[in-house]
Amino acid sequence: MSKPARRRFLATLGLGGAGVAVAALxxxxxxxxxxxxxxxxxxxxxxxxxxxxxxxxxxxRTARV
Length: 65
Description:
mainly alpha; about 60 residues
C-alpha cells in the first residue's frame, strides 16, 4: 500500500470514528426523556406479565450507557 493510500485509509477511519461518536452522543439526549416513561403500574395479584416497578426503573436508570 502506498503512503497516500495509507493516509487516506487512516483519515477515513478517523472520520468514521468521529461520526460514530457524534451519533452516540446525540442519541443520549433523547433517551433521558424517554427513560421517565409511564407512571408505575399498581401492584395487583391478578396482573400477569411485565410490570414497570420502581426496582425495574432503577435498573434501567443505572444501566444506561
